[in-house]
Amino acid sequence: MRVLVTGGVRSGKSFHAESLVLAASDVTYVAPGPTTEEDPDPDWAARVARHQERRPEHWSTLETRDVAAAIRDAEGAVIVDCLGTWLSTEIDELDGWDTVREDWEAVLMERLDEIVEALATTEQTVVLVTNEVGMGIVPEHRSGRIFRDLLGIVNQRVAAECDQVLLVVAGRAISL
């Protein structure tokens, strides 16, 4: 089973994604943003800690940007939370906010291809969380437009490999 859970910020998508694998005996929770060592931001550390507190003790947490390897190497169910964080961290690493998109986008797409391939070939349950973007106004700043456009591509590519796509609004999941 491969499921993409999308929705707005604070819509309940992480909680819903976690509920999909509660019965699994082995769960790896992949946090694909900066590790807490890389990003000393107390808000980021608090968010990671909040998520860890509500998970069962037998779940393991893996902080890594290598989502493809995490999926390939998993021996049980996997939750990736979230693809928006993965994308922004990748753009940071590629210096994409301050350089010409054409100079780094191919590398980003190769990394996305690896995730999609790992997702397509895994036999494990994988639940991926992402943000839904692009339903409002066009962002004023270049960085917002880049993020919106690329996350739309990421979401479409991942959704194509999933058995189910859920949209979470106000804590309620709607199957798409």
UniProtKB/TrEMBL annotation:
Signal peptide span: none
Active-site annotation: 51 (gmp-histidine intermediate)
Catalytic activity: adenosylcob(III)inamide + GTP = adenosylcob(III)inamide phosphate + GDP + H(+); adenosylcob(III)inamide phosphate + GTP + H(+) = adenosylcob(III)inamide-GDP + diphosphate; adenosylcob(III)inamide + ATP = adenosylcob(III)inamide phosphate + ADP + H(+)
Keywords of this entry: ATP-binding, Cobalamin biosynthesis, GTP-binding, Kinase, Nucleotide-binding, Nucleotidyltransferase, Transferase
Segments forming a coiled coil: none
Pfam families: CobU
EC number per UniProt: 2.7.1.156, 2.7.7.62
The protein's annotated pathway: Cofactor biosynthesis; adenosylcobalamin biosynthesis; adenosylcobalamin from cob(II)yrinate a,c-diamide: step 5/7; Cofactor biosynthesis; adenosylcobalamin biosynthesis; adenosylcobalamin from cob(II)yrinate a,c-diamide: step 6/7
Residues that, per the record, bind GTP: 7-14, 31-33, 63, 81
First-tier enzyme category under EC: transferase
Gene Ontology terms describing biological process: cobalamin biosynthetic process
CDD domains in the cross-refs: CobU (cd00544)
One MF term in the entry's GO annotations: adenosylcobinamide kinase activity
Record's keyword annotation contains Phosphoprotein: no
Described purpose of this protein according to its UniProt entry: Catalyzes ATP-dependent phosphorylation of adenosylcobinamide and addition of GMP to adenosylcobinamide phosphate.
Family per similarity comment: Belongs to the CobU/CobP family.
The protein's name in its UniProt record: Adenosylcobinamide kinase
Organism: Aeromicrobium terrae
